[in-house]
């Protein structure tokens, strides 16, 4: 027993950042900055490279010419270059950025929602519903009253109908759990895929069937300035903002229902809200670009490896990485077999499959 008056032993000082939050924050900030630079570079390349090559400086000149308050004789570009960049390539680049970002963050949210690392937007049958709606428009003339928006309108209607059906099936047995959502999405997706295949088989139009198949593999060829592109940009921006703000809730949901309840998150209610947000976003994206696979599956994994598992960092990282990836994939689709254009889904599959196989192998071996 220490003598009276002896100095008491002081406890070692606690570290100022015991959980490493500052280190993770610095790592996330650096990664997001690098990904933002990568996204800008991919967008610039997408606008500059093509059948008619354009200098990056000319691309910037065209953009500056169309920005408010910058119209002056000093920045007036060549009319032909302006038409190629502004009227053809920039809408396509913007659509690619939005679709890539939207699919990636929706994939990240779904992987947390169903606690399955192999989840992606196709899991809930939303893409299959959009495909069925698009096939009905192309082969049966559905949505003819919408004029030039018949294809996208029918696809969006099919996506929403599939989402409602998945939710109704999952909800019919009680609370909306991850297992019920997973099984309901798979079942509804297979049924709608069969319906799409039947429409293609039963149609007497070879050209219509070819158009459906090309659309099912994805394309950004419908991109143009106007309300549809603006709607995609607004929906994706809102989705990324919401999912980033909901990062702590997504973290809690990914750790299990009991943990989520202990942290004050209602799993069933939050899954319902997430399903509505993801379904709306994916429906808009598929209606604008067709079915593009592997972006929502692979990109969230890469984002988590770059910034960690916290969704407040991994969601914006996935958005930036998905945007850059899809613009690069579209650039390859336009140039690999020029003047023919590959469906972008083929390029994303060729890039995504080897990575997914590597991911499965590294996970199995503990790497």
What does this protein structure show overall?
This protein is mostly helical and 367 residues long. The protein is 72% helix and 0% strand. It contains 14 helices and no strands. It has helices at residues 21-48, 56-66, 79-113, 126-140, 150-172, 178-202, 206-216, 227-245, 247-254, 257-262, 267-289, 295-307, 311-335, 344-365. Helix 4 packs parallel to helix 11. The chain is globular. Residues 8-19 have low confidence and may be disordered.
Content-based structural category: mainly alpha
DSSP summary: helix tally: 14
Q: If you average the pLDDT, what whole number results?
A: 85
Oligomeric state: single chain
Say how many strands there are. Answer: 0
Give the distance, in angstroms, between the N- and C-terminal Cα atoms: 50 Å
Order of helices and strands: HHHHHHHHHHHHHH
Radius of gyration: 24 Å
Largest sheet: none
Please give the share of residues in helix: over 70%
**Poorly predicted runs:** 8-19
Shape summary? globular
Characteristics:
globular; 0% strand; mainly alpha; 14 helices; 367 residues
């Amino acid at each position: 027993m220490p003598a009276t008056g002896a100095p008491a032993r002081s406890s070692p000082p606690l570290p100022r950042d015991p959980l490493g939050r500052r280190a993770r924050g610095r790592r996330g900030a650096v990664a997001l900055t690098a990904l933002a630079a990568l996204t800008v570079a991919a967008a610039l390349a997408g606008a500059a490279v093509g059948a008619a090559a354009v200098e990056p400086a000319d691309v910037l000149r065209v953009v500056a010419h169309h920005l408010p308050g910058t119209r002056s004789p000093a920045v007036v570009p060549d009319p032909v270059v302006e038409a190629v960049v502004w009227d053809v390539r920039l809408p396509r680049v913007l659509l690619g950025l939005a679709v890539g970002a939207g699919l990636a963050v929706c994939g990240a949210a779904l992987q947390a929602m169903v606690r399955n690392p192999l989840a992606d937007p196709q899991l809930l049958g939303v893409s299959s519903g959009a495909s069925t709606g698009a096939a009905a428009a192309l082969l049966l003339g559905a949505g003819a009253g919408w004029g030039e928006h018949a294809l996208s309108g029918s696809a969006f209607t099919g996506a929403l109908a599939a989402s409602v059906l998945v939710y109704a099936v999952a909800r019919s047995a009680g609370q909306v759990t991850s297992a019920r959502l997973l099984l309901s999405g798979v079942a509804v997706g297979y049924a709608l895929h069969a319906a799409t295949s039947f429409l293609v088989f039963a149609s007497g139009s070879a050209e219509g069937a070819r158009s459906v198949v090309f659309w099912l593999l994805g394309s950004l060829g419908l991109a143009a300035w106007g309300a549809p592109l603006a709607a995609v940009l607004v929906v994706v921006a809102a989705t990324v903002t919401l999912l980033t703000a909901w990062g702590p809730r997504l973290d809690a949901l990914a750790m299990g229902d009991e943990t989520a309840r202990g942290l004050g998150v209602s799993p069933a209610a939050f899954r319902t809200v997430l399903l509505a947000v993801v379904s709306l976003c994916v429906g808009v994206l598929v209606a604008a670009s067709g079915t593009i696979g592997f972006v929502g599956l692979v990109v969230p994994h890469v984002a988590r490896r770059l910034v960690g598992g916290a969704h407040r960092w991994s969601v914006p990282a996935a958005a930036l990485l998905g945007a850059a990836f899809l613009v690069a994939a579209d650039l390859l689709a336009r140039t690999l077999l020029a003047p023919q254009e590959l469906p972008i889904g083929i390029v994303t599959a060729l890039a995504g499959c080897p990575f997914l196989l590597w991911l499965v192998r590294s996970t199995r071996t503990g790497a």
